Amino acid sequence: MEKASNLESKMYVLDTNVLLHEPLAYLSFQEHNVVIPMTVLEELDHIKDRKHDVSRDARVAIRGLDEVLKNATPEQMLQGVALPSNKKANANSTGTLIIVNDHLFADSISGLPGDENDHRIINCAVYLQKQHSDSKIVLVTKDINMRLKAKGAGLKYVEDYRTDQLIDDIALLTSGYKKIEGDFWQHVGECKTEQNGRDTFHHVAKNLIPDVFCNEYILDGSEHFAARVKSYDDEHITLKDISVERLMHQQAWGVKPKNIYQGMALDALLDPSIELVILTGPAGCGKTLLALASALEMVIERGIYDKVIVTRNTPEIAESIGFLPGTEEEKMAPWLAAITDTLEVLHKGDENPISSRNYIMEKANVQFKSVNFMRGRSIQNAVVILDESQNLTASQLKTIITRCGEGTKLICSGNLAQIDSNYLTPVTSGLTYIVERFKNFEGSATVNLNGVVRSRLAQFAEENL
């Protein structure tokens, strides 16, 4: 390989997990050189035939690499093949893709034993750092321990793959509402108000709330004013006046909000014009209860939808629901016990809560489905509740969202502090991804449910453990 000309040139060595996380990740390094060690290709080869969701990503990565390198000679592969332009990035590529046979390098270069694949990849990066001293060699991996070992082995630059991260810190995640200090009307100058049936709309200046998006809730310090952003342009924002009193007096299947956050959530959940509702928040804030209560209200009482479909990932990270006996719904029952528990809570005052639960499940046509079997479906006139969605990737969430047809409402709930997946962090979770991607979509609303209402014990645990 020819040496890079100066330190402005960067050479990124990609680990296997980066390509499994985003199969076409190498297209994101538009103006730099991307190195794929032979060990990475071997790992992709071993993974591609497994009966797991990750095998699909491995196959996509292999096909993508083949597309770039199919007309290249062995010499060109070592020197670097021009990267195609990334349509998403909308940029002209000046970088190259290089395949390196890291098996030819001595194991002693990095000081790590060479029988592990991670060590071979680190060894390759350290070798390139010595060979290209006038260039910046960066190892990109999502494995935290590998990043630590690489630095210990003498590699100067080690990074996580951050191209798909829409925010740098989870604290920056959209909450779905804004609070304005003091009385809202004291800040408002010229305002045009109009009545449309039962609804009141205010047209206020855009500079009053600069960073606003559709269906965001606006609260003030008076604890009386509450509104939802209906639309906006460069000069004005149209607010739908709701008022705190109206929010707190809503009801769905006998459930009333215990705080203003639950009130905002119920408002979004019970509005058929909002097709996607995303509920985030700590354990015990009422996400599942509100989602199920509003689903039953809209299916049985109001007749807006025909059925309720409940789905969530299974502990094997949405891979398999194993060899549990019974039908798909019976297999899913252990993972969806939170839903049946919630149904029992909603009917705990009945003479026979279990009979009531079974009757309501039949009347509302409540179906338990595995994420595995959602691909290829088209769901019409239904409320889809996706519980524990913090454990899903953006790709898996896209699969579910694109299943929703006409007249379907999707409710995604999750707690980003309770991620069970080995491969996801709060910043890279699919739940974080859709909160940021859909915040400007007029058919979606996000509400972060602050405050634990499950019990005194749960609240203390959430705050102090």
UniProtKB/TrEMBL annotation:
GO terms for cellular component: cytosol. CDD domains: PIN_VapC_PhoHL-ATPase. Transmembrane segments: none annotated. InterPro entries: P-loop_NTPase (IPR027417), PhoH (IPR003714), PhoH2-like (IPR051451), PIN-like_dom_sf (IPR029060), PIN_dom (IPR002716). Gene3D superfamilies: 5'-nuclease (3.40.50.1010), P-loop containing nucleotide triphosphate hydrolases (3.40.50.300). It comes from the Bacteria. Keywords: ATP-binding, Nucleotide-binding. Residues 10-148 form the PIN domain. Belongs to the PhoH family. In the N-terminal section; belongs to the PINc/VapC protein family. This is ATPase. It comes from Pseudoalteromonas espejiana.
